[in-house]
TrEMBL record:
Coiled coil: 125-159
Keyword Hydrolase: no
Lineage, top ranks: Bacteria, Pseudomonadati, Pseudomonadota, Betaproteobacteria, Burkholderiales
Protein name: Na+/glutamate symporter
InterPro entries: DUF4337
The UniProt record lists the keyword Transmembrane helix: yes
Length: 210
């Protein structure tokens, strides 16, 4: 591979370089499957697999990055959901406090000795009731926001699993490529392309949140 001016970076560098360097010591006509060039002048099996491995490794690196990014997003969204839940809980505690004050005001109103004091307590009851309505609306809004953050976190985690699956499949494809280079088996080459195609399909599913 070094004779073509590029180097494949990945977990199977040693095998790829060994196979490529070994192919250069054959006869002047090359081998049918693994020489520097095929008899028809096209790309040899070794060169073709090496190029495909480089492409697969690059795509796998992108998938791995996306998997890490979505996992980080999932954690951030889950943290936002926890914050909103805490704020909602504080609002409900505040609501309970107002309910207690309203109950005491109603008791004082009902036991007041004159109409003036009874009217004064009634105003407080009405005020507490309005405050409870506002607090309840705020608490429900915070709960809705918490649910939205939770849903987004779950979506990001699902996408993270898809990216991780795609990355793993591509790594298997690279392993098959290394074995194909060492054994010069055509069926392993075909298996490598098939597995790589499967990894790309899973990556597309991840990109479209499927």
């Amino acid at each position: 591979m070094s004779g073509h001016g590029f180097h494949v970076h990945g977990p199977h560098d040693h095998e790829l370089e060994h196979a490529a360097s070994g192919s250069g010591h054959g006869d002047s006509h090359g081998h049918a499957e693994g020489g520097a060039a095929s008899p028809s002048g096209g790309m040899s099996m070794t060169s073709k697999i090496a190029v495909c491995t480089a492409v697969i490794a690059t795509v796998g690196a992108i998938f791995s990055y996306m998997g890490g990014a979505t996992q980080a997003n999932a954690g951030l969204y889950k943290n936002n959901a926890a914050i909103k839940k805490t704020e909602a809980s504080n609002q409900w505690n505040y609501f309970q406090s107002k309910s207690t004050k309203q109950a005491l005001a109603e008791f004082a109103r009902d036991t007041a000795a004159d109409d003036a004091r009874r009217q004064d307590w009634q105003l407080k009851v009405a005020r507490y009731d309005q405050e409870k309505t506002d607090i309840q609306a705020a608490a429900k809004k915070l709960e809705a926001e918490a649910s939205q953050w939770d849903a987004q976190s779950e979506e990001q985690m699902h996408q993270h699993h898809r990216w991780a699956q795609a990355t793993t499949v591509l790594q298997v494809s690279i392993a098959l490529a290394a074995i194909a280079l060492l054994t010069k088996k055509k069926w392993l080459e075909r298996a490598m392309f098939g597995v790589a195609a499967g990894g790309l399909v899973v990556g597309v599913l991840a990109a479209f949140h499927i």
